[in-house]
Amino acid sequence: MNVGLIIPPILALVLAPLLLGIINRTKAVFAGRVGSPLLQPYYDLRKLLGKGAVYSKTTTWVFRAGPIVSLAALVVATLIVPFGGCAAVLSFPGDLILFAYLLGLARLFTVLAALDTGSSFEDMGASREVLFSALAEPVLFLGIAALAREAGQVSLTHIPLADPRPFLSLTQVLVAVALLVVLLCENCRIPIDDPNTHLELTMIHEVMVLDHGGPDLAFILYGAALKLWLFGAVILSLLLPAMNLILGILLALAGMLVLAVLVGVIESTMARLRLLRVPQLLIGAATFSALALVLELGRNSP
Prior knowledge:
Elements: H1 7-31, H2 40-49, H3 61-77, H4 95-116, H5 120-151, H6 170-186, H7 205-208, H8 215-239, H9 245-269, H10 278-300
Helix pairs in contact: 1-8, 1-9, 2-8, 3-4, 3-8, 4-5, 5-6, 5-10, 6-8, 6-10, 8-9
């Protein structure tokens, strides 16, 4: 097996929590604070892994399996997404469909674990999560369909076009903007959700994991970091041209740094949207993806 193939998943597994640290430091700079260390997410994970887990008598095996299955699905997804000049470990026609369904599987078990507690509070967050994810999935599918049509390959590895262009196509720009909205939605970031809030009327993702603790909460936090990395890798793969291994990895790492800073800037300069406004934002992103697909269908039609 080509040694370069294992680089994307290794980078994802090792550096994903660092993105959260960069986002928090960016927000601290905007707030005029020193902020927590860049490696604080790693410290939090280590602390949680050293604690014990407490389970309610009302929960079943679903509650315990939720964090494990969710993290396992995201780890498998790292094998499908390329990074920089490295191809993915698992690359085959239709792998982008598997990628989307792995993300859906991770979300499903997170929601089931929240419902298994029997808490109306967590049920409320689960219903919101399912609603917004149902609106975000068309954005993702339409976007990757447009990219597949442009590249002529139904695979994430072939999203970077073989012929590097001096400028981005309109399809790439539209899909990149749409996927950025999906990134914010899927990772519960402002303006969709605030990962630091504990206000009942506004909580979405955080309310679903209130009953988790110890290693289970560590799995959830680590999975959230992996999901952020995965969406960032997909966005960068359509923005960065194909190039050799070393330059591709360095440029992709720099792009991931810029993306994390961008998320921090967005969270520092925007307010959280009202829940009724979130569907409108996602529908707007779906319009961008649909327009990109229509452009590609029209360009390639006889």
